[in-house]
């Protein structure tokens, strides 16, 4: 994890970080994981390569940080337009549908982020956890408030996230079509949360 966490950044550092993330997103959109070359990211973001590595120690860390920006953007969209549905599970399905449509609009970016996510590098644990926590909060908010902590609900949300990742991997690996992701998520949401 880098020393440049969101709450510790100056205004100029935050702007630099945003340029780096934007450059990585553009490169991933243009050609997926392999197109995100750190030297090219640095050039597009107008930062020195060493500076890029101080912010993001690896390509995987950078792409998972792009994923974090997308999770935050989803949370912002949901704050402006709350999930729809007559019951908690329907609201979760709506949230997952919105997120899944966003991922499928940029398949090369999705492939890049998922490849980074499943890279298995232990140094990525903090950024992976942050992204997972963000999605956990989004899904929990869609379910509605609880009076007390609910470990069973938390486990169900984590399992739903696991199903989602498995469905995305199957899609990007070509073993299942893109339109198979949402039916799996909907079935899992009903089975786990219903």
Fold topology:
Layout: H1 11-31, H2 38-45, H3 49-55, H4 59-80, H5 88-105, H6 107-117, H7 125-143, H8 151-172, H9 181-193
Molecular structure report:
By secondary structure, this protein is mainly alpha-helical. 73% of the residues lie in helices and 0% in strands. The chain contains 9 helices and no strands. It has helices spanning 11-31, 38-45, 49-55, 59-80, 88-105, 107-117, 125-143, 151-172, 181-193. Helix 2 crosses helix 3, helix 4 (59-80) crosses helix 6 (107-117) and helix 5 packs antiparallel against helix 9. The longest helix has 22 residues, at 59-80. The radius of gyration is 17 Å and the shape is globular. The model has no long low-confidence stretch (mean pLDDT 94).
Question: What are its keywords?
Answer:
0% strand, mainly alpha, single chain, 194 residues
Shape: globular
**What is the helical fraction, as a range of percent?**
over 70%
Which regions contain 5 or more consecutive residues with pLDDT less than 50? none
User: Structural class of the helix and strand makeup?
Assistant: mainly alpha
Strand element count: 0
Number of helices: 9
Mean pLDDT: 94
> What letter string, H or E per element, gives the SSE order?
HHHHHHHHH
Major sheet size, sense and barrel closure: none
Q: Tell me the fraction of residues in β-strands, as a range.
A: under 5%
